[in-house]
Every structure is written in C-alpha cells, then in structure tokens.
C-alpha cells in the first residue's frame, strides 16, 4: 500500500516536534542552501516540516500544485541530508476559485471555522474528554479549518497549550460563550 500526502501540509505540533528532532540528529543548521529552516522562535518552516513528516510517515507520493514545483529540488536535497527517501512528486494545475484566484487553505475562513466548531461542540453534550477534543480538532484540520482563528476565539491568544487540551478543559457553556463572542 502506498501513502499519499496532499501538500502543503498543515502545520501543527507534530511537524515542529519531528522537525526539531531531525535538526538535532542531523547537522543541517538553521539555514540550508541559503533558506531558513528554523524561525527565530525555533519552529520549523514548511520546507523542513514537510520533508521530515514525509520521511517519518513513509510517504511515497506527494500530490501538490504547480506553484510548489520550484520546491522539489530543495526537498530532495533535504531528504538526502536527513538520510530519508524522497517521495515521488506529482504537480498539477492550480485550482481556481470563482474569483479567479487560486484556492488556498489560508483563505479567510476564521468565522466559518469558529461557526463549524460551535456546531460540533454543541452536538457533544456535556464535557468532552481529551480524546474527543482531539477528534474535534482533527476534523476541522482535515477540512482546512482555520485553527489559529479557533485558538484566538477560545483563548484570546496566538499561542499556548495544545488546542485539544484547551477544548477539553473548557466546559460546554464556557466554550459556546467564547465562540459566540468571537463571531
């Protein structure tokens, strides 16, 4: 069975943790071929995070838009430096929205994500366990939800504890109150 990842990969703690471990295990430094791999705050950029994840998960094929074609040589060199096998890269034409611009997971989706999460949380009666919270967050992430907007709505901060932990810690009424205030 082959594994396929549709790129660009969403960011998250898994990427950062794995990427930092890879940097510690291989002498890449914070820059590679003139490109930054680690931001000043220590988090990995897309290039390092996606290559490390591809290696960790044994990804055999990456299907992504033509706008990522220039990244292929860099990603192949990173795989070589990390001692992992580069997947096959397949580039397709960009998908254009009704406005004539390329579709992007970074489109203005904050209010939609918060509203969708409110529906999901409302259906979960009572408090949610950490595992249930992880499932709710995972579902939003899988459909390209704006997890940053959700974090802001629930905590009022850009960064903080794992989002699933926040969701599990808040009771239903407090979660709904914060979501309503954000929309």
- Output the number of helix runs: 8
Distance between the ends: 43 Å
Number of domains: 2
Which sheet architecture does the biggest sheet show?
3 strands, parallel
Q: Report helical residue fraction.
A: 40-55%
Rg, nearest Å:
18 Å
Structural class: mainly alpha
Give the strand tally.
5
Inertia-based shape: elongated
- The strand order across the widest sheet is 1-4-5
Give the low-confidence spans: 1-28
What would CATH call the class of the largest domain? Answer: Alpha Beta
Averaging pLDDT over every residue, what do you get? Answer: 75
CATH superfamily of the largest domain: HUPs
The CATH architecture classification of the largest domain is 3-Layer(aba) Sandwich
Give the SSE string.
EHEEHEHEHHHHH
Strand residue content? 5-15%
CATH topology of the largest domain: Rossmann fold
Describe this structure in words.
There is one protein chain. By secondary structure, the protein is mainly alpha-helical. The protein folds into 2 domains: 4-92, Rossmann fold; 110-182, Arc Repressor Mutant, subunit A (Orthogonal Bundle), CATH 1.10.10. The chain is 49% helix and 9% strand. It is built from 8 helices and 5 strands. The chain has helices spanning 13-25, 46-57, 72-82, 110-123, 130-142, 147-155, 163-169, 172-182; strands at residues 4-6, 31-32, 35-36, 61-65, 88-92. The protein has a 3-stranded parallel beta sheet, with no helix packed on it. A two-stranded antiparallel sheet has the order 2-3. A hairpin with a 2-residue loop joins strand 2 and strand 3. Helix 1 packs across helix 2 and helix 4 (110-123) packs antiparallel against helix 8 (172-182). It is elongated. The protein starts with a strand and ends with a helix.
């Amino acid at each position: 069975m082959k594994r396929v990842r549709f790129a660009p990969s969403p960011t998250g703690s898994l990427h950062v943790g794995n990427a930092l471990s890879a940097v510690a295990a291989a002498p890449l430094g914070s820059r590679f071929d003139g490109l930054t791999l680690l931001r000043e705050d220590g988090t990995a950029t897309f290039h390092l995070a996606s290559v490390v994840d591809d290696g960790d998960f044994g990804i055999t094929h990456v299907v992504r838009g033509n706008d990522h074609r220039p990244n292929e040589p860099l990603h192949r060199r990173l795989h070589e430096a990390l001692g992992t096998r580069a997947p096959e890269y397949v580039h397709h034409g960009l998908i254009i929205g009704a406005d004539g611009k390329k579709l992007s997971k970074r489109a203005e989706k904050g209010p939609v994500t918060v509203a969708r999460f409110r529906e999901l949380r409302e259906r979960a009666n009572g408090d949610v366990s950490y595992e249930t919270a992880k499932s709710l967050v995972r579902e939003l992430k899988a459909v390209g939800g704006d997890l940053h907007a959700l974090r802001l709505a629930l905590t009022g901060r850009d960064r903080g504890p794992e989002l699933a932990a926040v969701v599990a810690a808040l009771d239903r009424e407090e979660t709904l109150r914060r979501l309503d205030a954000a929309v």
